[in-house]
Amino acid sequence: MNPSENADDSRPGVSRRSVLGGGAAVAVAVPLLVTGAGAEAAPVAEVASADLVPIKVEVNGKPVSVRVDPRTTLLDTLREELELTGTKKGCDRGQCGACTVHVDGRRVLSCLTLAATVDEREVTTIEGLARGDRLHPMQQAFIERDGLQCGFCTPGQIMSAVGMVHEGHANSDDEIRERMSGNICRCSCYPFIVDAIRDAQKVMR
Amino acid sequence: MRAYTFTQPRSVREAVAHAGEGAAFLAGGTTLVDLMKLDVMAPTRVVDINRLPLRGIKLDPDGLHIGALERMSDVAVDRNVRRDYPMIAQALELSASAQLRNMASIGGNLLQRTRCGYFRDVTTPCNKREPGSGCSALTRINRTHAILGTSDDCVATHPSDLAVALVALGTDVHLATAQGTRTVPLDTFYALPGSTPHVENVLRPGELVTGITVPRSMWAANSVYLKIRDRQSYEFALASAAVAFEWRGRTIKQARIAVGGVGTTPWPLPAVERALAGQPATADTFEAAVSTAADGARPLSQNAFKRELLRRTLVRAFTVLAESR
């Protein structure tokens, strides 16, 4: 975990986020290169890394248009551009599950998803689960069952658990453990996480 | 991550026109994005193929056809796959995590890179990543490395579970370039490391995997994929076995077998298949058949245990199949 994670909004001076945000605004004017590609093919936009790719995404039900470096992950776009910092950067290598979000309803790792590939798709993050002040049943169950200590992995755990219930594979404790194995909890709250998911899936059904 | 040009073609023709030396196709991204961050892979051009029409899971008289962009989780839950090719569904569900299975494509799975820690660490020598730099695993940490198909230049284990099942079932891989298409049997698709471990398969520059065909057979429906690993879930195999039997009464008419976690490629075991053919499904038959399974193995300082683990994994897989008959 980045030790400055919780200090993002309170740090004095120039923050990492404001630098990146400024960079994006400047780069909006960079034109796209268009090259011919194949005799019958319609031209395919060819984008150098210095250029930004325009994407339209529905994030938590709201349409969003941003321009992203083709190397930028969905995780960094959510956190740095859209300021949705509920989704956490743990390993940034696809191994810990902290960055789990839903793309078109499927649970995926936002750290291994390039933002440029989610154009025209729907993204749901932890911020999009609750309905107003009413928590999602999975969020409520994690609180009631004490399914967290430090809480850093919790957004990923909850997004993954909701995805698993929708997949129809939360029918026993063993199945929950197997299908949640991609979400690591360094505080080792696993027994309470299983309890929470078992409770929530009954409500969600 | 190094800079690259980025394209999102909508047809195979466009995609292969954009490919070639220095280019990488992007599907699920679970290997490529990871390795680009680590600077292990540094393509100058990334071709996002997710808009190509390489989808579909179809069963017909020739067999099972799977588009290269189908995701692992979707193939694993397909009704026909589960009924007629259970080892494929099992190999998929025992791979990675649920999130990764939702992302990773079938074509990409066949091309995933080794998990050798030295391959993934650009500060250490690795002949696969940097030809001629040397192999760190030969003399250092090598517990999870291969014992079969190794060379003095590379001992990296092939990581895919799915490929092991597909080799056992005689799968064909369909490929496309700007010059045309071709089909290659999966068991000749992968290259042994030899003195060129950076060459992992027969793909030509810019060649795209478009799909696979798993033939119909008398044994695919009676099949199992057994995976042995350090953790119960979300871990690569120390040893795995993909086994299919065709039965005649209580006798094994013929067997198809490949193993994973022990080889530099998915490793077929034709001698063990022959030793089972025509034999009754008994413990004695199984023990005798696996006696040659690790022949030719070249254990390293930390992985000699894999010889016996391989034999035990096979016997357990045979036993599971016999008991489920």
UniProtKB/TrEMBL annotation, chain A:
Annotated SUPFAM superfamilies: 2Fe-2S ferredoxin-like, CO dehydrogenase ISP C-domain like
Keywords: Iron, Metal-binding, Oxidoreductase
InterPro entries attached to this UniProt entry: 2Fe-2S-bd, 2Fe-2S-bd_dom_sf, 2Fe-2S_ferredoxin-like_sf, 2Fe-2S_ferredoxin-type, 2Fe2S_fd_BS, Aldehyde_Oxdr_Iron-Sulfur, Beta-grasp_dom_sf, TAT_signal
Alphabetized Pfam families for the sequence: Fer2, Fer2_2
Lineage: superkingdom: Bacteria
Keyword check for Metal-binding: yes
Entry annotated with the keyword DNA damage: no
Domain 2Fe-2S ferredoxin-type: 53-129
Entry-linked PANTHER family: OXIDOREDUCTASE WITH IRON-SULFUR SUBUNIT, OXIDOREDUCTASE, IRON-SULPHUR BINDING SUBUNIT-RELATED-RELATED
Name of the featured protein: 2Fe-2S ferredoxin-type domain-containing protein
Top-level taxonomy: Bacteria, Bacillati, Actinomycetota, Actinomycetes, Micromonosporales
TrEMBL record, chain B:
InterPro entries reported for this sequence: CO_DH_flav_C, CO_DH_flav_C_dom_sf, Diverse_Substr_Oxidored, FAD-bd_PCMH, FAD-bd_PCMH-like_sf, FAD-bd_PCMH_sub1, FAD-bd_PCMH_sub2, Mopterin_DH_FAD-bd
Domain of life: Bacteria
Keyword tRNA processing: no
SUPFAM superfamilies listed in its UniProt record: CO dehydrogenase flavoprotein C-terminal domain-like (SSF55447), FAD-binding/transporter-associated domain-like (SSF56176)
Keywords of this entry: Oxidoreductase
One Pfam family linked to the record: FAD_binding_5
SMART domains with a match to the protein in the record: CO_deh_flav_C
Domain FAD-binding PCMH-type residue range list: 1-219
Signal sequence interval, chain numbering: none
PANTHER family assigned to the protein according to its UniProt record, in alphabetical order: OXIDOREDUCTASE, XANTHINE DEHYDROGENASE SUBUNIT C-RELATED
Protein name (record): Carbon-monoxide dehydrogenase medium subunit
Natural source organism: Plantactinospora mayteni
Source taxonomy: Bacteria, Bacillati, Actinomycetota, Actinomycetes, Micromonosporales
